[in-house]
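>> received
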Amino acid sequence: MSQRTERVDELLRQEIGSIVTRDVADPRIGFTTITSVETTRDLRHAKVWVSVIGQPAERDAAVAALRHAMPFIRHELGKRLRIKRIPDLHVHLDETAERGTRILQLLADIEAGTIPPPDQPVSESLPTPVPRVHQVDDLTEEPPSAVRPPVPPRPRRDRSGSRPASPRGTSRKSPR
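>> returned
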């Protein structure tokens, strides 16, 4: 892959992500991230890799909605980018998060001493957060470096942009 196609890939990834979050108003898209874009050498076609958080049916619906929105996204890219040709965009579901979740699930099962079933389907694309269990070595209260002291409020400026008058009529200027 040449340096030019790498730059175009990154530019397309950023711009497509921006368009999807700001301009595409389809509720089926949900929590979608453009993870990667791979263009062909002649810049006529581009694979857009998409990661979606949710159940398998929600992921399929989001990918279908993105495929439906790709002509609009391509049109918007034509307005924003100054490149000779905007590639045809082909959406693909990026399943690396699901594979990572499966590996985490297998490791948790092995740590718990259970034997995981070989082809257990993953129900969610990301692990569900669980509350942290208190450990013996934990501190009873937060260390001072983790607690931010309260910040006193700054004096407000009036609408003219000047500072408020000093208390008791004293001047802010130092005597000469």
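>> The mean pLDDT is 80.
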